[in-house]
Each structure stands twice: as structure tokens, then as C-alpha cells.
């Protein structure tokens, strides 16, 4: 069970209007100017926007894979350790993070993962 960084980047490529911004230590991802994710190559972790209830459930269920990053604006961000998650689960979480930030008309154009 593990997701490589190239798999994570492919997941992002399936979504519409994803904007990447590079910093020295991380990459950040937005849709139409609204941030929904981060990637830290050094630690092989990603940060994803989620609902507060999903943040709480993920961290409570598997604290070895998920940790609280922060909460803001009614959303809970989680850190995901790529070496502890399967591709299909991460695909769903990435889609949900994107969906929480994307405008409705854009979400209607991109079906959720199976």
C-alpha cells in the first residue's frame, strides 16, 4: 500500500483547471484561485482540504496515515502520508478536495471517480 508522487500528479491531471504553484519546499494546487491541496516532496506527504467531519473521521480512523494540518473557513485540512494509502482512496480524497474549491459548473463537468 503506497502511492508514488507521479501517481498523485496524474490524479491532479484528471481534474479541470488545476493551477500549480511551486515554492522552495512544497507545491500547492488551486482551482480558479481557490487552494485545495499541497505536496511536500521531502516528506512524501500531501495536504488536502476536507470537511471538518471528514478530517475528524480520517484522523480518528488511521492516525498513522492522516493527521490534522489545520482548520480554516469551516474546512479541515489533513496531511496524508503517501506510503500509507492506496491509490483509489487518495483519488477520492483529491477529488473531494478539488470539489470543495471548484465552482459548481466546473464540478458538473468532471464526474467523481468510480
TrEMBL record:
InterPro entries, alphabetized: YjbR-like_sf (IPR038056), YjbR/MT2646/Rv2570-like (IPR058532)
Protein name: MmcQ/YjbR family DNA-binding protein
Amino acid at each position: 500500500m503506497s502511492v508514488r508522487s507521479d501517481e498523485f500528479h496524474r490524479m491532479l491531471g484528471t481534474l479541470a483547471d488545476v493551477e500549480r504553484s511551486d515554492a522552495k519546499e512544497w507545491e500547492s494546487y488551486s482551482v480558479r484561485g481557490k487552494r485545495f491541496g499541497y505536496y511536500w516532496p521531502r516528506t512524501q506527504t500531501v495536504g488536502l482540504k476536507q470537511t471538518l467531519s471528514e478530517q475528524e473521521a480520517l484522523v480518528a480512523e488511521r492516525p498513522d496515515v492522516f493527521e490534522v494540518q489545520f482548520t480554516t473557513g469551516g474546512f479541515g485540512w489533513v496531511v496524508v502520508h503517501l506510503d500509507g494509502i492506496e491509490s483509489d482512496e487518495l483519488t477520492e480524497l483529491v477529488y473531494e478536495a478539488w470539489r470543495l474549491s471548484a465552482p459548481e459548473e466546473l464540478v458538473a463537468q468532471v464526474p467523481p471517480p468510480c
